[in-house]
Amino acid sequence: MRLPFSPYWSLLVLLFLAGLLQAAMPLRAASPDAKTAPLIPLRVLFEEPKRASPRISPDGRRLAYLAPHQGVLNVWVRSLGKKNDHPVTEEKGRGIRSFFWSPDSRSVFYLQDQGGNENNHLFRVDLDRGKRTDLTPFKDVKVHLQADDPAHARSLLLDMNQRDAKIFDVYDLSLSDNRLSLRAENPGNVLEWEEDHQYAIRARLAMLPGARQEVSARSSIDAPWKVVASWGPDESGGAVGFSPDDRSLWILSSVGANAERLLEIDLESGKQTTLAEDPHYDVAAILTHPKTYRLEAVAFEREKLEWRFFEPQVREAFDYLQSQHPGEVTIASRDFSDRTWAVAFSSDIDPASFYLFRPQEKKLEFLFASRPELASYRLAPMEPISFPARDGLLLHGYLTLPLGATGKVPFVLLVHGGPWARDSWGFSPLVQLLANRGYGVLQVNFRGSTGYGKEFVNAGDREWGGKMQTDLIDAKQWAVAHGYADPDRFAVMGMSYGGYATLAALAFVPGEFTCGVEAMGPSNLLTLSHSIPPYWEPMRALFEKRLGSPEKDEAFLHERSPLFAAGRIRVPLLIAQGANDVRVKQAESDQIVEAMRKQGLPVEYLLFPDEGHGFVRPEDRLQFFRATEKFLAQHLGGRAEKGAEPKQASR
């Protein structure tokens, strides 16, 4: 499993010589495949998957998964070895994205917000009685799962900001009567909590003045807290678990290294032991045994995800799985006894195929494919690339070309959100849509992206609209210099931070791109800073280190805000926004649309009244990508599905 992120962090490719050599090579015409490959219908790519997210019950008797019911994703359950599949939830409008089994295997829990406001409630479905209960029916309160260990079958641990909207306390949820009781009260600066294997809250990560952070632990819930690790604003890390005997704490830390390492700290002596490290890449995931808690494997995300194993049996299991299927292996879930796994095989051209696997017997049984209709179509492979930016910093990314394309084609520079995130190798419905319509797709992990160590992340400090932006321009020039892209048909597109980067590209370097598509992108960094969700407040110091302070750096943030250069935008722009977005408020889109329309500049605006930071409702998602497909076909000359005119959203 990938490492979980704190709730506070949800905000948050030689060029010259190689270009000359490639530009000197004769270019061939594009293969007919680029124009004659069958169009993949939008619904096949963007409707809800047929089945996804298999979860084996802790007792190993049942399987739960997500599948459409009433038009959106709901939880279905079947008995293993039988075909008695049936839905157990009845959500409408917005499908379920996050669910899990109760530790006693008798209930299913799921998280759901209202209209995209991100204030998740926790719901419980008793499978014996079919009763659905909202366990956190509190207004403007957000809940996260802290722990659901089957060894503690009587309760769950939850994080909730009921007492104070800015901070999360830890609560115990009794499964016998659904009662909540406070287990750990946040003093005001704790970002993350960590429980030991006895469900005692014994470690925490706190934010200190000056964007410093510290990890503290205690020997018992009655003992005083003791600082065991700390770092300044240029470092990163966090607690990720306790050793099997609860005597040591596992943390991630970049202190003394470039990339985040997995360390073990003996809580009595303070001795630190390095368990896993890479000089260039952060630890991306850890795998532990569900019952013994032994560390089994650690992953690093280089060009692709790569595992380092600590248990020979787990290595043997992964080797066997890899010999049976060409896709990248992921463990979706395991039962408590570790006798049955639900595994996924996926790749850049395979969204996901799920299997049951019994490692002791080496028995693999097909469950289902997430998008079986895609098996009828050829998909475009995604290739890792790297190149130096203009200042010499090595950038990594991914290149996807239309099938059969060997000459210059229209391109889309697809910018990831975050920005403290990264693009990864694998299946992307948006990338496949663009490639299928005849566009090359370029994704670059610009400075500030995560996963490549602290030097790379810190290189993005105060570079919104600066070097983070010139990295994108360098990526475009790389694609043009290598003969992949037609420079006169090159769009920029992104969501969230990628939306900001789209606006910045069109406003700050007019003429560089042919058109732009953005969703939920901040246009004014000052108003963005003043309107963050309350539970991001403990992270404000670090946020302002990365971006800038609205009080101390008002002129700087004004200069880096596309809103105040909107009059320079001269190419067509499509903007989409969720009205209930709590991260990037509707005003961020409204104000730049208004500024452009006052000057008669070309902008289309889609406002979705029932969405937040992302398009969850299937009809809204299809509407946005229909509009995108038509917009790009009009301005770049690619293909579009006939009869797929976009409906009229609120404007």
Task: Summarize the structure in words.
Its EC number is 3.4.19.1. The protein is an alpha+beta fold and 651 residues long. Among the domains are: 28-43 and 375-636, Rossmann fold, CATH 3.40.50; 50-147, TolB, C-terminal domain (Neuraminidase), CATH 2.120.10. Helix content is 19%, strand content 33%. The protein has 13 helices and 35 strands. β15 (212-217) and β16 (226-231) form a beta hairpin. Residues 1-32 have low confidence and may be disordered.
Percent strand: 25-35%
Annotation, overall tally of beta strands:
35
Q: CATH fold name of the domain at 28-43 and 375-636, please?
A: Rossmann fold
Distance between the termini: 40 Å
Assign a percent range to the helix content: 10-25%
Q: Which structural category do the helix and sheet elements fall into? A: alpha+beta
By CATH's scheme, which homologous superfamily of the domain at 28-43 and 375-636 applies?
Answer: Alpha/Beta hydrolase fold, catalytic domain
CATH class of the domain at 28-43 and 375-636: Alpha Beta
Major sheet description: 8 strands, mixed
The CATH architecture of the domain at 28-43 and 375-636:
3-Layer(aba) Sandwich
Please tell me what the overall shape is: globular
DSSP helix count?
13
The neighbouring-strand order within the major sheet is 28-29-31-30-32-33-34-35
Give start-end ranges of low-pLDDT stretches: 1-32
Using only C-alpha atoms, the radius of gyration works out to 25 Å
Mean pLDDT, as a whole number? 93
